[in-house]
């Protein structure tokens, strides 16, 4: 690869103009709010004055028109001293569950607009956000503002060529022509008429790079506030997802690995010693595994459908345990056996009780990050899922993980495309984060079950590899 120094891209005139318009709108809104407050105070004072005059036996009326309070020119306003409105100091965020969301992430859309053809669409995060509002959960949380991740932050996980190609608008980049010719990705024309980097992962030349960087920056902001104890825990309602994105390859709807980047930055900037990443998306997080495969300070633990490597993305075998110093700190709970019958709450709850939580407790993380895909919830047909977990099961699993790291945990949305399923699961997880009890309604969930293999590393000294065969039911 040619040596290229990554610099921040020049400002986008359209983005600057939009930001300027937003600031003007905010100022106008502030002025209107102040005017309303002044008018309410003036009316209150006039009524008190009128009542005092009537109590003294004097009749007094005021004209129906609104006094020109700004010019202090009306008789009524001359009776009272000018009102000074003092701005309230900024309120300190509540120590509660944090939420992050931004409508700009909805603009990452295929030009065809067909949500049936493209299951990873804007309605996913819009529906989840609406559900949290309708149920009152959003009001119990602290909503924080997201931001676009910098190119420097993206480079903690991804190559410079990758972030230049997918993190910037090529029309604004003045790259060496030879370099750009060699590194330009091969986009494909989709049957719908749109453009993608593959048949699944669409690309919108105007909005995709901004949306992907906003998803990363939003997850990073939330993780930093939780790690710094400004917030108790958090849930990031973001898209596009990230856990499939590798160092130099976008795939599976993903461009930048939000959770992996957040973990790297927690290590670098806040000196967080040990980070646990739990990935319960039904697809293996190949990009996250790649990022920490030799790192003993990040324990990556994934529960996913594997089917002997025949389920997307084909990685995540039980014997993929890490390398070098990171050997044993990569744990794959690889479910194999197809869909006869499909996996459900029984298998996941048993896996958590017998493998996930014992390993996690022994690792004793300082922060827990969750790649929270909900495509294992019932309602997702294969190849987007195929399993039949209940939404409340994920709330229960969230509750289990809250016992780690002093409760410092952030869930970041990954996959999940059935709107009812992902809304139900998000509601259950946020409820659990808020301390609301989650009760599993299914009876006899430990009846039956399926076996699976798991290879994991003992944290004892010297380290040893252990094979464990779990036979459920």
From TrEMBL:
One Gene Ontology cellular component: histone deacetylase complex
Subcellular location as annotated: Nucleus
A Pfam cross-reference name: Hist_deacetyl
Record has Zinc as a keyword: yes
Residue span, Histone deacetylase domain: 118-433
EC id: 3.5.1.98
Key words, A-Z: Chromatin regulator, Hydrolase, Metal-binding, Nucleus, Repressor, Transcription, Transcription regulation, Zinc
GO biological process: epigenetic regulation of gene expression
Superkingdom of this protein's organism: Eukaryota
Start and end residues of each stretch annotated as Disordered: 1-21
UniProt-recorded Gene Ontology molecular function terms: histone deacetylase activity, hydrolytic mechanism; metal ion binding
Principal EC category: hydrolase
SUPFAM superfamilies: Arginase/deacetylase
PANTHER family the record matches: HISTONE DEACETYLASE 4, HISTONE DEACETYLASE HDAC1-RELATED
Family: Belongs to the histone deacetylase family. HD type 2 subfamily.
The protein's name in its UniProt record: histone deacetylase
Protein source organism: Salmo trutta
